[in-house]
Amino acid sequence: MGKAGVFRGVQHINMDSKGRLAIPSRQREPLNALCDGQIVVTIDTQTSCLVIYPLPEWERIEQDLQALPDLNTGVKRFKRLLLGYATDLELDGNGRLLLPQPLRDYAALDKKLVLVGQGKKLELWAENLWMDERDKALEVAGPEAELPDELLTLTL
């Protein structure tokens, strides 16, 4: 995480058979500074990965979600998934966490994982699914790619 408080980078990590994994120090130190290692892990409703939020960031999102109308069927389904899978976890003294089985099952996590920085959050992928997703993104991101208007204003 950089000076601006942004998680970035791609790191390959391992998970043991009990669902324990160690967050690399590059991400662990900011998580400890931001939230004393208190995180919320939930599913990404558009892809087969998990999303790791520092607790204060998740609380902001959760408050916004709670303000949405439950009478809207799409909103209700989205909240049911995102909030239903949301799990409070805490990094232990060695920066490890234990992922519950339902989260591991959703994201098809096995031994080899990839942790991907996404600004204010981290994504956790099964390595094979990450490689597929990365390859798809690279295929459509070539020089002829049609970019959303929001990206056209950026200078990279």
Automatic annotation (TrEMBL):
Keywords of the record: Cytoplasm, DNA-binding, Repeat, Transcription, Transcription regulation
Gene Ontology biological process: negative regulation of DNA-templated transcription initiation
Secretion signal, residue range per the UniProt entry: none
Any one of the GO CC terms: cytoplasm
Location in the cell: Cytoplasm, Nucleoid
InterPro entries: MraZ (IPR003444), MraZ_C (IPR035644), MraZ_dom (IPR020603), MraZ_N (IPR035642), MraZ_sf (IPR038619), SpoVT-AbrB_dom (IPR007159), SpoVT-AbrB_sf (IPR037914)
Matching CDD domains: MraZ_C, MraZ_N
Residue ranges annotated for the SpoVT-AbrB domain, each copy included: 10-57, 86-129
GO molecular function, one term: transcription cis-regulatory region binding
Domain of life: Bacteria
Family: Belongs to the MraZ family.
HAMAP family cross-referenced by the UniProt entry: MraZ
Subunit structure: Forms oligomers.
PANTHER family linked to this entry: TRANSCRIPTIONAL REGULATOR MRAZ
Protein name per UniProt: Transcriptional regulator MraZ
Species of the source: Parahalioglobus pacificus
Gene that encodes the chain: mraZ
